[in-house]
Specification:
Layout lengths: L13 E5 L4 H12 L3 E6 L14 E4 L5 H11 L3 E4 L6 H6 L1 H21 L4 E7 L22 H20 L2 E7 L1 E3 L17 H9 L6 E4 L11 E2 L1 E3 H14 L6 E5 L5 E2 H12 L5 E4 L8 E2 L4 H7 L8 H14 L9
Parallel strand pairs: 1-2, 1-4, 2-3, 4-5, 5-6, 6-11, 7-10, 8-13, 9-14
Antiparallel strand pairs: 9-12
This protein binds uridine-5'-diphosphate (UDP).
């Protein structure tokens, strides 16, 4: 597994990673620590895992919706940069509680932005999502595509991006938003991987079915206008995502207003993922046809030209075999997720 960033921290450079015990946040915190950055992880552990936080990071157990508490953490730890991964991120859940979802994600970003402005932070990077684009007809999706979220979760992230715009315009804090397509895969050398409870994401679900931990895979809709009728997504390895964060952090030393779509640039249907896991693991996976899941766009494929051209990023670990192979080994070694490490 390769990562391409060779970064040296500046003296006093200190990154506060909100949500750094979660899936993507923990991989980014791990890479920052490995490169020698000073890292503080702030997480309420509602969905994240204490075992996923790197040993060399300072850990603060904190609900980032608490405005006064966040301000106090910033005043005491004096970070120079902020990365925000702390959010509710399930499309289906966001329909059951749309206002709660938007309030939750927006409150966290507002609190972090306020504390950043109060304490002289110089850069702010937001974990955003392809969901801000909704059911975009033109694929692959470039950064210029209209922001038209198709579900409350995507709307909450689009609103957080607006907060960044005004934070930058009024305080001079340089900002970036990275719109991930489908984060996937694991970092075996560091015991990091994807563990949600309940699990809703396709690749871990298919792998759990291959392992016999569930009796099959529900396919949410096979009547979409695609070759096999199932939705198409762009799967990007979490280590490539981490690399994109570090490259963006370095770019934020001198540039602001950065917006990048982060994906491999290739799309796979739900059925193709099931077949790929069958191929990689040698296990047959039963599937069941189910109705469409509310808010699912037909196709999401990233145009990644901008980050390639501006920052030299490459999705070097995002071949499907690498993604599925690493995820498979993580789940074999951690059948109970991070509880396996207790
Ligand atoms: N999906 C599915 N069965 C599942 C989980 C997901 O058919 O058990 C589909 C889902 O409808 C979507 C794709 O797989 O089209 C990717 O879903 P996931 O939840 O992994 O990521 P999302 O694209 O929602 O961020």
């Amino acid at each position: 597994m390769a990562n391409t960033t060779r970064a040296t921290p500046l003296p006093n450079e200190h990154v506060l990673v909100a949500g750094g015990a979660g899936y993507v946040g923990s991989h980014v915190a791990w890479l920052l620590c490995r490169l020698g950055f000073k890292v503080t992880v702030l997480d309420d552990l509602s969905t994240g895992h204490r075992h996923a936080v790197p040993h060399s990071a300072t850990f603060v157990h904190c609900d980032a919706r608490d405005t006064a508490l966040v301000s106090r953490v910033f005043a005491e730890s004096r970070p120079t940069a902020v990365m925000n991964f702390a959010a509710l991120s399930l499309v289906g859940d966001s329909y059951r509680n749309p206002i709660g979802y938007i309030a939750h994600n927006l409150t966290i970003t507002l609190n972090l932005a306020k504390a950043a402005a109060e304490t002289g932070v110089s850069s702010f990077l937001l974990s955003s999502t392809a969901s801000i684009f909704g059911n975009e007809a033109s694929q692959p999706i470039a950064e210029e595509a209209p922001v038209r979220p198709g579900n409350p979760y995507g709307e909450s992230k689009a609103m957080c991006e607006q907060v960044l715009r005004w934070l930058e315009a009024t305080t001079g804090i340089r900002t970036a938003a990275l719109r991930y397509f489908n984060a996937s895969g694991a970092l075996l050398s560091s015991n990091l991987g994807e563990a949600h409870d309940p699990e809703t994401h396709l690749i871990p679900i298919v792998i759990q079915a291959a392992l016999g931990l569930r009796d099959g895979v529900d396919i949410f809709g096979d009547d979409y206008p695609t070759a096999d009728g199932t939705c198409i997504r762009d799967y990007v390895h979490v280590l490539d995502l981490a690399d994109a964060h570090v490259k963006t952090l370095l770019a934020l030393r001198t540039a602001g207003g950065l917006r990048y779509n982060i994906g491999s640039g290739r799309g796979y249907s739900v059925r193709q993922i099931v077949h790929a896991v069958e191929r990689e693991t040698g296990h047959r996976i039963p599937v069941r046809r189910r109705p469409r899941r509310e808010g699912d766009p037909t196709t999401l494929i990233a145009c990644n030209d901008r980050i390639r051209n501006e920052l030299g990023w490459r999705p070097v670990n995002s071949g499907l075999a690498t993604i599925i192979g690493s995820a498979w080994k993580w789940h074999v070694n951690h059948p109970s997720g991070f509880d396996t490490l207790r």
